[in-house]
Design goal:
Blueprint: E1 27-30, H1 31-60, H2 69-94, E2 95-98, E3 113-117, E4 123-129, E5 140-142, H3 146-151, E6 159-164, E7 167-177
Parallel strand pairs: 1-2, 4-5
Antiparallel strand pairs: 3-4, 3-7, 6-7
């Protein structure tokens, strides 16, 4: 096989790490979401990377690196950390932080907490956030999700149809709030 078709810098038998997802267009985030990404960057840069670097140096001092599991694993972990740091740096440069409550707070916009009622009168509450902040446990859903897209620009009392795998469902907007619950 030609060397043009081989990856020379990959470790022996080491699968390539999956690339981070690429998103086109404006990428919005709340101030809290941006802070969480910044905190991760700072932790990796100031704590995790120096610790792993020290471990790799100590493992390298033991001698034969080709059969040194600590050295091999440490180098792999450093590559993972560096890849994540590059991704976070690029991501943080592109994000648009939305901090202000919209002038027309009677309509659903980015960052809104919405209370919805389904066809069976069950209520559910969500916050519309950017793709980097999705957390179903906290009921944070993306503005790009089917529910998020259907709700943007709607007012209290509006009904929206949302297509989902189980079929369409009608949701009625009961409440809009921009403050933390």
């Amino acid at each position: 096989m030609s060397k043009a078709f081989t990856k020379e810098d990959a470790g022996e038998g080491e699968p390539e790490a999956p690339e981070e997802r690429v998103v086109f267009g404006p990428q919005y985030i709340t101030a809290a979401g941006r802070k969480k990404l910044l905190d991760e960057f700072e932790h990796l840069w100031k704590s995790e990377r120096p610790r792993v670097t020290r471990e790799v140096e100590a493992a390298a001092a033991l001698g034969d690196r080709s059969e040194n599991a600590e050295y091999i694993y440490g180098k792999k972990r450093l590559r993972e950390i560096d890849r994540r740091l590059r991704f976070l740096k690029k991501k943080l440069e592109k994000l648009i932080v939305v901090e202000e409550t919209p002038a027309d707070d009677g309509k659903v916009r980015f960052g809104a907490w919405v209370t919805l009622k389904d066809e069976e009168d069950q209520e559910v509450r969500y916050r519309l956030v950017g793709g980097d902040e999705i957390d179903l446990g906290r009921r944070f859903i993306s503005v790009d999700s089917p529910v998020g897209k259907a709700l943007l620009g709607k007012e209290v009392g509006d009904a929206v149809m949302v297509r989902r795998p189980k079929g369409e469902i009608e949701l009625t907007l009961v409440r809009i709030c921009y403050d933390e619950p």
